[in-house]
Amino acid sequence: MRRTFKRAPPPPRLDRFIRIAVNLIGAAGAGLFAKASIVYFLQTHRLIGGLFVIEETWFVVAFLVRRPARAVGQGQACWLVAAGGTFGGVLFRPDGAHPAWGVRTGFVLQLIGLVICIASLWALGRSFGFVAADRGLKTRGPYAVVRHPIYASYLLIQSGYLLQAMSLRNLAVFLLVTACNIGRVLLEERLLSRSAGYLAYQQRVRWRVIPGVW
Fold this sequence. Notes:
By secondary structure, this protein is mostly helical.
């Protein structure tokens, strides 16, 4: 005879401790990126540096004030792809080829990606998440165009970096981070599709990340 065992949810105190710990670790990680962005902006006074400061500072605040989730994805896969998609970018290095066209095109892609990311964070408000979770449906701003605009912004920012510093290492990092974010999309949609509201949203907004492609 087969028996099905359901994993018991963690005790309320443990669940609260885990949530606070994840928020603080996420805020600390975003804070390190924000510090590096501030140093870059002060040294170069370039617009893109200022946008990076806004983006990373917003991530710090978002981790600290985000609302508790109604449901959270279970399993190591959720955490692994979330960590890889969020922090894998630190593995990029400014080595390799730097063609003039790649530097210019990459700058434009990063600029567009940063604007989309900031607009998406604004639309999310306190519903910002790290792992697959249900924190309420948001459909305004970039979420009226694609269902996962923050991951779209990561794709633009990181592909822009790759064009500015072409190397096999950076290509491997780009493919790894992109694969993790694709995994995040699939895991999040599997969780959110339990909601009738999200199913209706999928019908209205067909594309996950790239309009006309996927």
